[in-house]
Each structure stands twice: as structure tokens, then as C-alpha cells.
Amino acid sequence: MGIMKEKYIEEQIRQEESCPQHVIDEAKVDEAIERMKDRQQMEMYDDETWNWSGLR
Fold first, then answer.
1. CB 45, CB 56: distance < 8 Å
2. Is 35 or 4 the better-scoring residue by pLDDT?
3. What is the pLDDT of residue 18?
4. How far apart are CA 33 and CA 40, in angstroms?
């Protein structure tokens, strides 16, 4: 691994540590909501009654 990449990774770790906990928690909740919406869309397309064009 190059020196610049190591410095970049260390900088990212420092930024994450300085981030308030509520911001991290909000990001996790947003990701979970997005996964739930994606899963609902997948289930809708895989459902024979909702997807009239056939299963994908």
C-alpha cells in the first residue's frame, strides 16, 4: 500500500472519530430505510399479482 493511501485512510479514520454519534446513528437509520424500500420494490416485482409482465 502506498504512503498516500495510508495517509488518506488515517485521515478518514480521524474524520469518523470526530463525527458526533447522532450523525452516525442518523446515517445508519437512513441506510436501513433505503434497504427496506429497496426490498419492498424487489418483493413487488417478484410478486405475481403486482407484476403483470411476469417474474423477473
1. yes
2. 35
3. 75
4. 11
Q: From its phi and psi, is residue 20 left (phi > 0), alpha (psi between -120 and 50) or beta? A: beta
Mean pLDDT (whole number) for 1-5: 81
| Residue type for position 48 | E
| Across 37-43, average pLDDT | 90
* Cβ-Cβ contacts under 8 Å for 45 (sequence gap 6 or more): 51, 56
CA distance 21 to 53: 45
List the chain domain ranges.
Answer: 20-56
